[in-house]
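INFO worker-7 received task bundle
INFO bundle size: 2
INFO processing item 0
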Amino acid sequence: MKKLYYFNLALMFLITQSVMAQTTFDNVPPLSGGGNTLGGVSFNFTTNQSITIQNLRCAFSTGTGTANIWYNPQKINGAPNVSTGNGWVNLGTSAPFAGLSPASTSPVVQTIPIPLSLIMQPQDTFGIFIQWTGNVYPTTNTSIPTFTDGTVTIIADASCAFTGPGTTPTFNPRQINGGVIYNLNTPCSGTPTAGIASAPTNVCANQQFNVSVSGQSIGSGLTYQWLSSPTATGPWTPITGATSINETVSQTVDTYYVCEVTCTNSSLVDTSTVVFVQTSPNLPAGIYTIGALGNYPNFTAAVSAMSCGIAGPITFNVLPGSGPYNEQITIPQIINSSATNTITFNGNGETITYASTGTGDNFIIRLDGADHITFDS
């Protein structure tokens, strides 16, 4: 019995080590003319086994900054426009941490302090974008567009390897100097745990947003299906294509969501908690007035009324004699605005001014990506 006891103990230790072992894979190609680039770096990432990505790694500039990680369940094919509206999911922003100084031909790669637990199934290909408040260190070593350890592959070819500021990088091709920390998932068995569903509490009509689950079972052989319903008890309707733990969806009415998790090895199913998302409507098409006795007391209130978009052409008539208006206004991109769904401000001879203190912006009205807007005196 004593020998058997020690044998079982040793076997249990080996199994534990096998299940819990992490693999770190860095590409770190030699820097060949890439240099440092302000902003972020994108690439595609694929696997031939079921894995859980624990962390990503990257070479950053010196100094202290924050990292922001995005992923897209569809592979990048062209310059990425990183936004929830384009199917990207934000996986988190780090607390400030120090970048390391890379040598000119041997960049120093470090682990980004954002725990991910991002599950990938065999043959999945995800788009990844890593932002940094300082510089990332890419390379232009395009003679080696893919890097693999036999299980996972970093794809950094001309179709997906971009760097640049903000969330619309344009320098290409620029390969990441970095990598990934991952675990191989063990096969699922029995009844899985679907976990807790989460989503924003309130969204605009037709606005894309993320739904996700946490605390779910992890293993190979698990499938995911998001369902929606107008009530908390169903009936539930499968959302076409929503088959991962993080998904991008949209809605026009208040909606309930759950995620159904199936272990294909046992054919047993569990359903996550229910999450409710309310909808703020678009501003109905029509003619509105601005002024103390109008629909909106000032321009700021009128612009705020369009924060969830418009349902058709909009006209704002400034009431005669209601001015002058002392405001500083920023008009963002308006959801559903188009060459047909235009927005018109008729000033009727009234004025809008802004008394600048000289310490900030001096604009009166600024359009931040907004179009199809006309201002008539």
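INFO item 0 finished
INFO processing item 1
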Amino acid sequence: MTLNKIFFRLSFVLSIAVTSAGHAQTLESGGHQTTGYLRSNGTVENAAHQTIGYFRDNGTIEDASHRTIGYLRSNGTVEDRSHRTIGYINKNGTVESVGRQTIGYVRNNTIEDGGHRTIGYARGVDPRQAAVIYFFWKQF
């Protein structure tokens, strides 16, 4: 095999690897262990790459069976499946409960609880989607 063919195959394999890696952002615990992935198409996966839900472009949040479990409004309001407000995500990254108590922060790809302790990392993830995953997903 010529050097050109080897280089071409290696470039092809690397481009596939880079492209595949770019389609999913990693969700991590505070200890930097992978807890899940958020794909560019809005699919949310657990650490084993099993689909656990979806973020739709219209703000609908679905479980793995495509049942609506909530909504993420453009103004940062988070609602359950019955359209009841369960929290807020402010533009400055502060996450609040329905009673407007601060429950956490999403800043610079770092997720913090209300006491500013790091509970996770979501590099490259939309901060509002990260807030839903870390603070509201289990409440739906």
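INFO item 1 finished
INFO post-check item 1: Residues 55 and 61 are 5 Å apart (CA to CA).
INFO post-check item 1: The first helix runs from residue 3 to 22.
INFO worker-7 idle
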